[in-house]
Structures are given as structure tokens and as C-alpha cells.
């Protein structure tokens, strides 16, 4: 008996007028002058049946944007629940993290016009003033487009089988920008779906860790970066018969190699060429098409006996607060600079932001910041853990999908893979999911200093997210937390 069904969907979220809108991801904040390609919302919907007639649905959505504030992702989930009764726990909303898309947080809104540029000071101003300059009408329009897409996907559900695998892409196309001589390699994760009636591949998820920054900061055109070209290449190679959807894997410290070259020893001594690459759309297409070809090859290479007929899943959400707290039990050349940055954030910027936020209550602020007693300033965020059990063909197996609210560094990602019960080969981490709070780095990177600690909400964000994730796994193992069937 056929039980599991699945469908893929996509809808353009490019507004009618893009010229003049601020692009998120870099300072000085550029204004969009046109587009290389459209930005989309893409999704995969998986349905299984329990107790003979109860439909269980798991919905994974990927948006071609830099980041998504938690209150905006919650809004999207609520609208879908109202329309189609899919519980918010069963929905994950992800941002691919392209740096050439439109601003969702309000942090990159352009409000000053000094010599035609708004720089880092404007981003700080926007955070302080609660990100009240965001385009809420545009966000509501996106949510409506997504709801309509989900309705069409429900109508297109087809009997399906599922399989998954991982393959390391053994090519020098990525670089750890803080540790170039690591010669980092990201595994490409594939979750594939075949039609259960004719055995034809009709769609797959791609999970790959590389910052979508193939386009340099000086480029001012809209683009989904390499994930958009990856999806396009899969469609082109299959005549539109196979859908692909990208979820960026841990890539907080992993950049594409466009113009910096691969002399890793030299780049270890001088990292400026890594941070200041001058990639063009030619690089976007080169890397996107290469990864698209590899993804399709890997998906097609999964043999039929590795597919499963049905799944059961539980999805767990944990909302928690991250304190604005510094890590100061060390001494290095970055100690004083880190302390000064923390003091300015903790005692000046965020208190002002909270006072103004309390007075104005923005709809979709970039951070869900709150007071916690008299001592603490904190920001609320979420992690999501989806445990999937698959069966069929006389066998059983499991996979895990973990959604984290920021840009996860390589070292913490390795720990997540090792500690997740499904194991590294069966665990898929989607970074920048449901929220964006910071770069999620280990404290050893904070001691080194640099751009990422400076740009992050708190020095302990990575440690806090790691702690809460491991605690969630322990609670699940002890059966003292609720999941959603």
C-alpha cells in the first residue's frame, strides 16, 4: 500500500520594482540597480498517513534571502497553519543567506544619504531603533505567496519514496576564511524523492556548506547567488522534470573561492584576499552549475534498494534566551578590543533598542530582544530538530534535520554531527533557519578576534546554541520533552 506522498513547489518573491531597494549583507549598504536572476521561495512537502486516515505533513521552506527574523518566520508559519492546518512545529523556514537579496530584518534599510552611502553606522542605528524601517508590506506579500504555493503543493502531492546520502565534494571551491590551511571540504547532502508508481526521480534537497557570496560587495544586482544557479542547472539538465531546493549547510566560516586563489599557505598569512574577493556573475554560474551537476549525479546515483516507502517523524522546537554576556576568562591581543565592543553593545546600543522597542512594538524586528530582570539584556531565538524514521523494502533507517538560528562555524558543526543520534552521515544541518541571531562560533574563535565576533550579538551565541541543542537531545532521549506527531 502506498503511504508517503511528496511534492515540490516554488514561487517568485521578486517585487515588481527592485531598483532602488537596499541589498542586505554588506556595508556600505548598496541600492539595487537591477537583477541577474529572480529570488524565490521554494519548498518540499512530505505527507504520511498514520492510524489509517490521519495526514501528517512536514513542510521545509527555503527563501532566497540573507536572513529571516524569528517573528517573521513565525508569521509565515501561522498563516500556513490558518490555511492548511499544518502545525508550526512541522514547518521549517530557511534563508539561503545570499548577500544579493532584499532586506528582511530592517538592519540594512537605507535611511541616510551621505555621499550616497549608508555604512556600518546605519546598520547599528537600525538595530538600536528596533529596525522600524523594514518593509512590512513586502513581508506580508511574501507570506501570502508562500501560502498560495503550499495550497498548490497539496494539490500536487504524489506517491513517493525517499532516500538520502552524502558525498564530499573533493575540489578547492571553498576556503575557511579564518583558517585557510585547513583545506576545508563540505559534504554535499542529498535527500531524494522518487515517484512510487514509476520509479522516476522528481525532486531532491541539496544541503551544502558554502557562503553564498560568489558576487563581490561592489555588485548591486539582485541574485540568489550560486544556490539559484544550482537549481536552474538541475532544471535545465532534466528538462524541468526534476526539482531541486537548496538549504545551506554550516558555512559561517566557509567562503567560496572566486578570486583569492588556492595558495592556502599565503592566505593563512594574509586573509584580506579571502574577505575581499571580487567575484562576478561568471563565478556564480561556474560554481552553481558545477554543484548542480554534482548534485544531480549524486541523486541519480542512489540505488533503488536504498529508497524507503514511508516515514514517521517528530519535530521539536526549543525557544530560549541568549544573554548579552561577555567571555573574558582569557588574555590575548584581542581582549581589550573585544571588551570595548561588548561594553558598547551591552550598556549602550541594546538598552536604547529595548527602550524604543517597548514604546513602538515593531512587527518584524531583526532581533527578538527583551529585558530579563534588572541585570540582563537578552535575545530570544529557536532551534529545531526533526527526527525522521523511514521504513520499506524490509529495512528501516533514520535521518535528522537540525535548524539553527545563525551562521554555524565548522568546529561546532562537527560536534553537532557527532552528537546527533542519527550520526554524521544521516544528519542534515540547515543554518540560518527560523531566525538569525549571530555567527555561531566557538569561544576559541572569539579569543582570536576579528570581524565575525565584532558583528555578532554576543560572544557566547555559539556556545549557548550548542548547549541548548545538546540539552534538547538529552531531554528527548530521557523522554521529558514534547514532540509533535
Descriptive notes:
Strands 6-5-4-1-8-10-11-13 form an eight-stranded mixed beta sheet. The longest helix has 26 residues, at 335-360. It contains twelve helices and 21 strands. With 485 residues, the chain is α/β, with parallel strands linked by helices. It folds into two domains: 5-310, no CATH class; 311-477, no CATH class.
Summary, kept brief:
This protein is α/β, with parallel strands linked by helices.
Number of helical segments?
Answer: 12
Strand percentage: 25-35%
Unreliable residue stretches? none
What's the helical proportion of residues? 25-40%
Structural class: alpha/beta
Task: Furnish the topology, listing elements before pairings.
Blueprint: E1 5-12, E2 23-24, E3 34-35, E4 40-50, E5 54-63, H1 70-84, E6 91-95, E7 101-102, H2 120-128, H3 136-155, E8 158-168, E9 174-176, E10 187-195, E11 201-208, E12 221-222, H4 225-237, E13 243-248, E14 254-256, H5 264-269, H6 272-275, H7 281-300, E15 310-323, H8 335-360, E16 368-372, E17 376-392, E18 395-403, E19 406-408, H9 410-419, E20 427-430, E21 438-440, H10 443-448, H11 451-455, H12 461-477
Parallel strand pairs: 3-12, 5-6, 11-13, 18-20, 19-21
Antiparallel strand pairs: 1-4, 1-8, 2-7, 4-5, 8-10, 9-14, 10-11, 15-17, 16-17, 17-18
Which features would summarize this protein structure in a list?
485 residues; 12 helices; globular; 21 strands; 28% strand; 5-stranded mixed beta sheet; alpha/beta; 2 domains; 8-stranded mixed beta sheet
